[in-house]
Queue: 4 jobs
Job 1
Amino acid sequence: MSGPSRSDLFETLSPAERAKVDLSCAFALNSLAWILLKTKGADPKETEAAAEVGRVRQAIGRLKEVELRKARHARVDAEAAKRFVRSGLWVPDNKKRRNQVEKGGGERGGKKARKSQ
């Protein structure tokens, strides 16, 4: 085994990925201990191995909860964001202003002329 060391691999991983690797290793070792006790004829449920397997399962559950929470908050509704930005930006309507100026005088003159007709 001349590959990179475990510490070198850990440097490239994110904290969530590191937790996954550690929990996988802990679960694998505890499962091997469970199998060893079973092959020796002992009841693993009555030893500390059962508590340790339960502890690792709880940690795996907590990690999954964190990942789900992170995934829920990471979503962005792109269409809604576009609507917010579009409605928040003020863009003058140049066509209306040009037409009103050509017809006779600015916004107020055009509006008064329409009301009196």
Job 2
Amino acid sequence: MTPERFREIGQLIVGPDPGWQSRLARALNVAPAHVSNIMSGNRTVTPDMRSTISKACAAAALAMSERAEALAKAAAELHVAGPEQPDTEREWTEDDAVAAIWDVAGMKPDGSPKNG
């Protein structure tokens, strides 16, 4: 794995904001110097490290999907309630969230424009 690819994957796992190498080191349970050495090309990514990175990718993907689901639900609740309506105690379903997201996007579920 090249240092460039390691950076790309690392930033996918922890985000590209400043301090990403330190956050990646924590996520991979290695010293920050280890990450720095891979980035500088002074250290290679071993098969064990590849496995660790793969697990970190999977964990980050799961966390992102859970966050995306929570955001979609919040968007649906806020959109359906609207600014004039009080929040309701009704449980929102995945179908509610999907319908509200399409509505907010101004599109039909088939991807065509709502007003087209």
Job 3
Amino acid sequence: MKKLILSIAALALFATTAFAERYVMITHGEGKDPFWPVVQKGGEDAARAIGADFEYIYNPSADMADMASSIQAAAATQPDGMVISLPDPDALGPAIKAAVAAGVPVITMNSGLESSASLGALCTLVSLNYLLDKKLVKEQKLKVLLKHFV
């Protein structure tokens, strides 16, 4: 009876871990930049909150071809979702499109706002400072135009 109970407990433990969702985050930044460890911790905390597994990948070389290879390798493992920074849509776009075509939901973050949708990403997560910077640039351009034409 004791062995039966232990076997059932082991089976229950195995079943819950075998079916845990798994998410992969791939960024172009590395741990030496103070920004990326905060991003990584946010991904880890979110995964822990929903009981999912989480893998964080970055390429220390910051080489876009290496990052594209990391995206392809991670997509081949069929995670439940990927979060990918998109500093170079031309270099990373084919890998992201392939991941989406393979059925992996992709969200881009931190950069690539203008290209994300065309690559098949569900959405792009950017910080408010990016949007504010864009707004300020537009306002500054407007001021320059007004100066010249008014």
Job 4
Amino acid sequence: MKKKYIPLGVVAIIYEARPSVIIDSVGICIRTGNSIILAGSRHSLNTDKTIITILRNILRDFGICPDNIQYLLDGSHKNKTTLARQKELVDLMIIRGGVEVVSEMTEQALVPIIIAGEGNCHIYIDESASYNMACDIVINSKVPRPKACNAVETVLIHKNWASKYFNEFINSLFKEKIEIFGCNKSIELHSNIKPANINHFKHEFFLPLQLL
């Protein structure tokens, strides 16, 4: 038994204003013998073009045709939808975007697709965790970029840690303008926490909101 790289052909990547996606996608596609078409956002157009120019030059330096990397200059919704229907030209489309983008592209696409689905990122605070470290990690994972796909949505807290630090911890989150929903036990410990339902624990909010 051995690992083999099997090229699919032309892979189209739909993404939002996250230029880091370019490097990851190009690296994986070129390494596995695929060509790639990137369709990003107008909000990161100049950064995208600069990164792609660098990557195309690198391919040229290594004797690989730079045209294996293509970029959709007009990444409008209309053009992305058109790309998703090019079943004679595109062998696979990977869609990285919000719920609405994924839903609409899935409906319109004629090419095979892989989607980056909705998620709910968790942080677990163990009973042995330092209070300052736990606060820093949770706040940093939510406050600077609440719309990032890896922003935390749910915090799970060991009951022994909560018995010592819970109220102080919650107050530190409130100071950051975070809206907090929690289970019945959390509400018993802090009266300003709002009641959460089962859907809260499955949803990706893209908002300064925390679940406990």
